[in-house]
Amino acid sequence: xxxxxxxxxxxxxxxTACPTTPDNLAPAFTITAPSDGSLATAGHGVELVxxxxxxxxxxxxxxxxWSADGQPVCTDxxxxxxxxxxxxxxxQLGGGAIEVLVTDPAGLxxxxxxxIQVQEPNHEPACSxxxxxxxxxFQASSTITLQGAATDLDDDALQVVFTSSLDEELGVTEPDGxxxxxLVVGPLSLGEHTLTMAVTDPSGASCSGQVxxxxxxxxxxxxxxxxxxxxxxxxxxxxxx
Length: 241
Prior knowledge:
By secondary structure, the protein is mainly β. The chain contains one helix and 17 strands. The protein folds into two domains: 95 residues, Sandwich (Immunoglobulin-like), CATH 2.60.40; 91 residues, Immunoglobulins (Immunoglobulin-like).
């Protein structure tokens, strides 16, 4: 059977006028936060953020599902117009495998994954300000031994700072192996002091204790015989002879 040259030309024109439709491309996804290998604390919320990319569809046409350790956390999310997708996950000990799947209207999918290290929650330190006793009175020339206790369930290195409402910072120390705290200070300024012992762990968690004391002139009316002059209104009068 012979084909007419005119028919061949006509078919060629039809094929040329009807270009083929390009294949639909699968969407892609990039996790932007948190970073792979970052730390999270058990029981705390972690914001998961990523961006979709699809040359064939607008972001709102896509659907995003976030999963943690194989369990869906946020399902069928519609990305924002700028392509971002945000999900909040509560970190669990023993977990941290984050996966995300994005699906386009044709059913094609793309995804990404990261691993997060989940640590136990930090515990606040416990402390007590044990000495001097509240309401104690000291002479102006005296040194004062400050004592307390500070412990931490996380075995963190603790910093202990003693301050006075009159003399500001008195000194910085740390507990010994048994949790005992001691610092010798003074002489302090005359007057009523509120002493504070503040204990802080490396994560910033803290505890504190306070006592009120009073510093008065000593029996001779002198504060420091080498440098200070007694208050004439309160100093002992000179003996007559």
